């Protein structure tokens, strides 16, 4: 079940994020597995705006979440995490679908994100949901700045991309 995050969900999301990040162990992004989780204030603000959704499983509680925010006329996906023992069961795709529905309801132009372009659970996953990689000429100044900030925080710019699902 996908639903808006409730205040009582928020303390459990760091464990979901940490579990999902463990998937990066043994990759060139190994450092992500031990990196910081999202700030509680960021989660609270997104929940208050209706831009934080939780995948809820009767036996596991909160098993995934998607955090988004408005950016450059789109709904921008800040984080999509599903606990390792619940991955590949459709929770990530369902969370993504909820974000797309919300962006349409808000009258936004599309949904965008930045990600690693070749790890299979990153860009290939989003491409399978209709997102397209933006080439250099299609990057807005805001997305260029976002990618630059990510590079400053340790992401290899040679492996990063911006992706977008545009609404007609």
From TrEMBL:
Which stretches make up the N-acetyltransferase domain? 1-150
- Report the coiled-coil segments: none
Q: Which Gene3D superfamilies match?
A: 3.40.630.30
Provide this UniProt record's keywords sorted from A to Z.
Acyltransferase, Transferase
**Which molecular-function annotations from GO does this UniProt entry contain?**
acyltransferase activity, transferring groups other than amino-acyl groups
Q: Does the keyword Acyltransferase apply?
A: yes
InterPro entries in the record, alphabetically?
Acyl_CoA_acyltransferase, GNAT_dom
Name assigned to this protein: N-acetyltransferase
Where does this protein come from, organism-wise? Teichococcus wenyumeiae
What are the leading ranks of the lineage? Bacteria, Pseudomonadati, Pseudomonadota, Alphaproteobacteria, Acetobacterales
